[in-house]
Specification:
alpha+beta, 204 residues, single chain, globular, Hypothetical protein af1432, four-stranded mixed β-sheet
Length: 204
């Protein structure tokens, strides 16, 4: 079980990302909680995705910025988040990495990645695979804080055959967040060829 650290966004060198998140996140607590859940899921599912720390850093940035589009008051917010990330200046990321972060944030909801989608279609095929995997993780993480209540205190994932069993400890019982994670599991299941089950248990 990986215990979440809700305020631990200060040790990864994401200066530009944190600056943009601080300026544009209307609900910074939600962004921080989604970041923590996403990183825990990444670490718990390495045997499935096989991605490296560089990809983990992209996921962290996308999680912190996935909802900045709400403050832009235009477009569906996931697409506005993508555009806001593309327009930003990040010294800590290359232009290629910034496009990947923008796509991961864009796909935290609604349509799954498609070859004809703007920005995504111009990525290298290998980068498209990484975006697909990270967006799948981010979707579940976002779903697990659907109510923006920060109910999740810890995450454990175990692969049993072709079933990924995700167990979350909750600070207080909150079925809506578990249901939110289940509703957003389809991209993960399609990407990794597994069935996702999510259950909750009380934190000790």
């Amino acid at each position: 079980m990986i215990s979440l650290k809700p305020s631990a966004a200060d040790d990864s060198g994401l200066t530009g990302v944190r600056r943009l998140a601080g300026a544009m996140n209307e609900n910074p607590e939600h962004a921080t909680q989604v970041r923590a859940i996403a990183l825990a899921l990444f670490d718990e599912t390495v045997e499935l995705h096989g991605l490296d720390p560089a990809a983990r850093r992209l996921l962290e940035a996308a999680a912190l910025l996935h909802d900045i589009g709400h403050s832009m008051r235009r477009k569906p917010h996931h697409k506005a988040s993508r555009d806001g990330i593309l327009d930003a200046e990040f010294e800590e990321f290359t232009e290629r990495e910034q496009r990947m972060i923008a796509c991961v944030a864009r796909y935290h909801r609604k349509a799954h990645p498609k070859r004809d989608h703007r920005i995504y279609r111009d990525l290298d095929p290998v980068d498209q695979v990484i975006v697909h995997a990270l967006a799948a993780i981010l979707r579940i993480a976002d779903g697990l804080d659907r109510a923006h209540a920060s109910s999740v205190a810890g995450v454990r994932a175990r692969l049993v055959g072709d079933v990924l069993r995700i167990t979350v400890t909750q600070r207080f019982p909150f079925e809506e967040d578990v249901e939110g994670g289940m509703r957003k599991r389809r991209l993960f299941e399609q990407t990794f060829g597994v069935t996702v089950e999510i259950e909750a248990e009380p934190a000790e």
